[in-house]
Amino acid sequence: MSRYVPDLDKGKGLYFLFIKAEARTPGGLVARPVLTGYYKSDKFKNRPYDPYLVYTSPDEAVLCADSFQSMYTQMLCGLLMREEVLRMGAVFASGLLRAIRFLQLNWKQLSEDIKTGVLNPKITDPSIRTRMEEILRPNRELADFITEECEGENWERIITRIWPNTKYLDVIVTGAMAQYIPTLDYYSGGLPLACTMYASSECYFGLNLKPMCTPNEVSYTIMPNMGYFEFIPHDPINRVNLSRDSPPRLVDLADVEVGKEYEIVVTTYAGLCRYRVGDILKVSSFYNNAPQFKFIRRKNVLLSIDADKTDESELQKGIDNASELLLEFDTSVVEYTSYADTKNIPGHYVIYWELLVKDQAKSPSDEVLNKCCLAIEDSLNTVYRQCRVTDNSIGPLEIRVVKNGTFEELMDYAISRGASINQYKVPRCVSFAPIMELLDSRLVSVHFSPAAPHWTPQEV
Predict the structure, then answer these.
(1) What sections of 50-117 are H helices per DSSP?
(2) Does 241 score more than 60 pLDDT?
(3) Which structural domain range is residue 115 located in?
(4) Which one, out of 93, 360, 382, 458, has a CA that is 20 to 30 A from the CA of 290?
């Protein structure tokens, strides 16, 4: 980064970092995201001083499991040190936008804390309160400034207005996170978006050697010392046969070809053997002899808001479970599709339903359809439910009931654009603006999940 952005050692980074609840496997092993393991380790807590890695967030806030207290303290410290902030970031773009939304909702209390020098009584974590006694001092001038910037309706360029020395945003905006780029540009006034690395809990894969490039140009150079990497050629039309009788053909790292797509397979020092991560990559070029890859998408993923990844089978299971609530009303789901609504923060899943109501006198009530939303959420994976319950990074699921015949109109539209009537299938996820407009123009009713889905830290 110092090759592209000078003097990063002369300021601080406002990074919103969080831990997640841990679980245990049936065999008793601790299961947690890799970053949670790192933040809770002595390597993080006792890390040596590095002028390039100085954060505004105190460790006590990062290590607080209560998401509200953690976010509040990190935002407060970021405001107190606003002129020292040279870069801002989170793991995903959605996390940074969630922090801006948090500021929109809580700026009055944050400003009051700065004005009086007294920490919000909602922050009860003893270690945070002790640490903030060393940091927080009354500052009426700063409090007035924050009030002036935040009290109006105009939040355009709010990042550079409050943190004027910010040089770039350090967030992942490839893959599903690309949907947040316009919103980030709005809040930041078009600050560069740096995608610095490609990693997962299973393995660290590689680096973006040109971190200040535009998001659509991001390529990651695989680091062969991080693990042993192999690749399954990916044909999006003719899916690879994965049966035992016909195992997929594996290509070594040195033998991939520019322009082709592959599913990455890793063997790691930690013990994973030929583990399929589920990422689809495209070879863009070579750096010396090391191939560089563009992240294309997660395999089979339909919906994603934050760290969640929901595929078609999971969504179908949720629809099936919710449909059972309609049986006593002689009602069934004729067709459905979905999309990830990220216009508001936090984003949420939207499911379009076309219903067959056999007896209008017994049609399901709003309360029943609201329960259908919750039934779908309860059927989704543990990462989704954790994001809903503890992280508040995903909003309540929404069902939009459309008029009868809507999905026939959708098919007619697809055929008018060249789709084959013999091969047409209802898309289970949509994002094309004209299709969204067609669906929304046929709305009958709108319903939201009335509560958070079930989730416990014991789930894996």
Answers:
(1) 59-62, 67-80, 93-116
(2) no
(3) 8-194
(4) 93
pTM of the model: 0.79
**Residue-level length of the chain:** 460
Give the contacts of 298 (CB within 8 A, at least 6 positions apart).
Answer: 175, 176, 278, 279, 280, 304, 309
Query: How many angstroms separate the CA atoms of 257 and 403, rounded?
Result: 48
- DSSP single-letter state for residue 273: -
Q: Are 68 and 76 in contact (CB under 8 A)?
A: no
Distance CA 300, CA 6 (A): 41
Specify whether 444 is located in the same domain as 336: yes
**Nearest alpha carbon to residue 388 among 325, 320, 459:** 459
Domain count, the chain: 3
- Distance between CA atoms of residues 193 and 88, nearest Å: 10
Q: How many Å apart are CA 218 and CA 272, to the nearest integer?
A: 27
Strands 204-207 and 220-222: antiparallel
E-state strands within 209-327: 220-222, 228-233, 251-252, 261-267, 275-287, 290-298, 301-303, 310-311
Residue showing tokens 């940091």: 135
To which H or E segment does residue 322 belong?
A: helix 312-323
pLDDT tens for 341-378 read 998 889 999 999 999 888 888 899 999 999 999 999 99
Domain membership of residue 102 (yes or no) is: yes
154 and 87 share a domain?
yes
Q: How far is CA 45 from the centre of its chain?
A: 26
* CA-to-CA dists, residue 4 to 83, 87, 94, angstroms: 21, 13, 25
Torsion, Cα 190 191 196 197, to 10 degrees, reads -40
H-type alpha helices, 151-236:
158-162, 181-188
Question: What mean pLDDT is predicted for residues 264-281?
Answer: 94
Pairing of strands 261-267, 30-31: unpaired
Cα gap 402→443, rounded to integer Å: 4
